[in-house]
Design goal:
The chain is an alpha/beta fold and about 290 residues long. Helices cover about 55% and strands about 15% of the residues. A 7-stranded parallel sheet has the order 3-2-1-4-6-7-9, sandwiched between helices. A two-stranded parallel ribbon has the order 5-8.
Length: about 290
């Protein structure tokens, strides 16, 4: 699939950030789009941008945690467009907090969206990708699917799971001779609103966390989408997005588990910075 002209591309989490940038670039490349998100306003904005580029688009509000909804959505997309050539499971949420401070419900939500959402999208669309004769499946993991980070236990667990799931699937479809290429994407810092819109354990100030994230030199969603689509065209097994992703991947390869001695203290300092002071918590209770 050297070009996207006339191909049907599915993007979840298309209402903002990387998903929105992917939708715009795919539309500009001539793809027909099936876009979804839980954010109705954001999705509508993406649809308008895509249509301004001349793209044909189907849009639905979709919660990727809902297996039945995702399965039904895949069938409707296949029925409307006749074939599905590219699926990018991009939807995701963030959570910050140490395990001792994290509720089970928060762990479950991160796993349900970030991991099970990928599984649902993969299982629902894989038969259609195989039937197309020229399929591409892209699952978005993370830099935290390569290395763990303090305060990101839930997120890392989900993203490590996405990477393992995707790499195993790539080997399976190759062994079976299916006409589908599978790519796992591991972005580093990307200038999106995922942290600002995230949840956190009690005592973590999300505004301070978002401000710290915004100070880091990350890549733009446009640049991230461009890197991802270049990897899709090349059929790469893994796509790293951003200099930080490349550096941490290299550190893990060179150091093995010893990378934790470097990352651990840095993560601890960040958690100390974003914890609310007792006075702040006292004011909230008044």
């Amino acid at each position: 699939m050297s070009e996207f002209v006339g191909k049907t591309a599915v993007v979840t989490g298309a209402g903002s950030g990387i998903g929105q940038a992917l939708a715009r670039q795919l539309a500009a490349a001539g793809a027909r789009l099936a876009l979804s998100d839980v954010d109705e306003v954001g999705l509508a904005a993406t649809v308008q941008q895509v249509r301004e580029l001349g793209g044909e688009v189907r849009a639905e509000i979709l919660d990727v945690r809902d297996r039945a909804a995702v399965l039904g959505y895949a069938d409707r997309v296949r029925e409307q467009f006749g074939a599905v050539h590219l699926v990018i499971n991009n939807a995701g949420v963030s959570f910050t907090g140490e395990i001792a401070e994290t509720d089970f419900a928060d762990l479950e939500r991160v796993m349900d969206v970030n991991f099970w959402g990928v599984v649902h999208g993969t299982k629902a669309f894989l038969p259609h990708l195989i039937a197309s004769g020229d399929g591409r499946l892209v699952n978005i993991s993370s830099i935290f699917g390569l290395v763990a980070f303090p305060g990101q236990s839930a997120y890392s667990a989900a993203k490590f799971a996405v990477r393992g799931f995707t790499e195993a699937l790539r080997m399976e479809v190759r062994a079976a001779g299916h006409p589908v290429r599978v790519t796992c994407v591991c972005p580093g810092g990307v200038k999106t609103a995922i942290v600002r819109n995230s949840r956190a354990a009690a005592g973590i100030d999300v505004d301070v966390l978002a401000a710290a994230f915004d100070r880091d030199p990350g890549v733009s969603p446009v640049a991230a989408a461009r890197t991802i689509l270049a990897g899709v065209r090349a059929g790469r097994a893994r796509v790293l997005v951003g200099r930080d992703a490349w550096l941490l991947d290299l550190a893990q390869r060179l150091l093995g588990p010893a990378y934790q001695r470097v990352v651990g203290p840095e993560g601890g300092r960040l958690l100390d910075q974003v914890r609310r002071r007792p006075l702040d918590r006292q004011r909230e209770s008044i």
